[in-house]
Amino acid sequence: MIVVACLVAVAGLIAAGITAYFVSRHGGSTPIGARPSRSALTVNSATSNRSAASAGSTPSTSAPRTTRPATGNACPSSAACTVSGDAGGVVGALNGFRVSHGVPAVPGGASSQAQQCALDEGGGPACAQHFAWEIVPMQDGARVISQIASRGAQWLLDPDMTSFSVGWAFVPSTGQYECAILKVA
């Protein structure tokens, strides 16, 4: 009986810790989608975004790749810049996550709108509608999806998601990559 009481108490402490973490991340009453700091995840799902990814492309479930430019700077100058394509493999990582949770893969690919959202650090008109934004040290799609899932897997597993697009940016001053995912639901 004492063991059961201890287990219940530990479970309560864990739940309280998780709740405190989410409240500290999102400021309690701050709506998800409002980015309180540069390092916070932004997930915005106020309305649908029909312009993000092509609905006619084939869903990718390939393994994510991790790359970093040999120079350590993907930009032609010291200013932040967009990075073409999805060398980090977010499309494959997101669809792999969906499939592993019994949800079908959906079409996804890189887009200039998602690149601009990443460059704008999850703010600005390119990020309107459904989006997630993350900072990572390398183009690592699995890490991006893991960070998003740790704060809201339901966003990634949305059964109404019909497609999505991905964009990357690099910030030379920090040596960090920023990734944006625009969801069409």
Keywords:
185 residues; alpha+beta; two-stranded antiparallel ribbon; disordered N terminus
Task: Walk me through this protein's architecture.
By secondary structure, this protein is of the alpha+beta class. It is built from four helices and eight strands. The chain has helices spanning 2-26, 90-100, 112-119, 141-156, and strands at 42-45, 66-67, 81-83, 108-110, 130-136, 139-140, 163-171, 176-184. The strands form two sheets. Strands 1, 3, 4, 5, 7 and 8 form a six-stranded mixed beta sheet that branches. It has a two-stranded antiparallel sheet with strand order 2-6. The longest helix is centred in the first third of the chain and has 25 residues, at 2-26. The termini are far apart.
Secondary structure layout plus pairing:
Blueprint: H1 2-26, E1 42-45, E2 66-67, E3 81-83, H2 90-100, E4 108-110, H3 112-119, E5 130-136, E6 139-140, H4 141-156, E7 163-171, E8 176-184
Parallel strand pairs: 4-7
Antiparallel strand pairs: 1-5, 2-6, 3-7, 5-8, 7-8
Helix pairs in contact: 2-4
